[in-house]
Amino acid sequence: MASGDHKDRIYNFSAGPSMLPLSVLETAAAEMTNYRGSGMSVMEMSHRSRTYLAIFDEVKSSLRSALNVPDTHEILFMQGGATFQFSAAPLNLIGESGEADYAVTGSFAAVAAKEARKYGRINIAASSEDRDFSYIPAQDALKLSENARYFYYCANNTIYGTEWKYVPETAGVPIVCDMSSNILSKPVDVSKYGVIFAGVQKNMAPAGMAVVIVDKSLAGRELPYTPKIMGYKTAIEKDSMDNTPPCYTIYMLGLVLKWLETQGGVAGMERKKAAKAKLLYDALDSSRLFTGRAEKQARSDMNITFGTNDPKLDEKFVREAAGRGLANLAGHRSAGGMRASVYNAMPEEGVLALTGFMRDFEAENIKYK
Ligand SMILES: Cc1ncc(COP(=O)(O)O)c(C=O)c1O
After folding, report:
1. Distance 39 CA to ligand 1 centre (A)
2. Beta-ladder partners of 327
3. pTM of the prediction?
4. Mutate which of 133, 152, 156, 158 to test ligand 1's pocket (most atoms within 8 Å of Cβ)?
């Protein structure tokens, strides 16, 4: 069981949906049946009501200030999670018989490229599949094509545990970036991006929505058959309310953003996540039993992937860790091994509990190797 502040909760290392800050859950619980004297839950409110619109506007402005989003970009809340955006990107940006460049550094980027191929010619600008997605290609390895309408990459590869440490240079071609698993973990220069999108279920809110930050000058390029509900233009014009938005998820995002402010914003998060990731990577680097999966210079600070090179021992580790209140440490079913997802809401104590358990497990099991 987790200690201190975390009461009877366990440390949940799930890749998403994942931990939310306890204080956020407690505020949500306190406001659950009667939101600030309104006599109803936020779940029950009309999205057009004055009370709800006040929540909605505050969430947008908190997010704008947290990520320092410039006026050139609009913040959208779209349903369908990040996967919906795999289709939305080409349908909004590729144009008639268009082309786009994709960097494939993991499964989600591969799925996005496959989806985009339905709508145009997709060039693989780079891939790290040759070494099992364990690295991130360097800038000079990116093969950019002349006619690409956009360049697509996934900033943090949740399954393989790698993270881009640079923003690609694309000579003016708009960048579309999936930041599902590292948004709000560090400052980002939003002005460098055409579109940033992120499923909210890791660092932001309960599942069911994506935050999309789009350069307004890119709206209106959708294909004639692009569903209206998928259009950036529609969402901008209707302020994400062409239909009923995921009201409660947006409210929860607002609570998370308030909590984020108390943690020093994204700059505070960057310091904390670097410290947490260092604890885990130092533990891996000094271990004789565990090895990290990602190449060192590409290591993600959010998803730390590792293993013992023995599937049976990996299984034992995951099982025994769960017995100690360290839950959901199994790697993705396609990657095997272990994965510790240490998103913003994971306290450092959780990581210390994990590294402590890794040491104990190693002492007990190294002899069997
Ligand atoms: C990087 C990345 N992109 C996309 C997705 C898919 O997100 P969703 O389930 O919200 O569609 C995930 C889910 O884990 C992810 O980690």
Report:
1. 36
2. 12
3. 0.97
4. 158
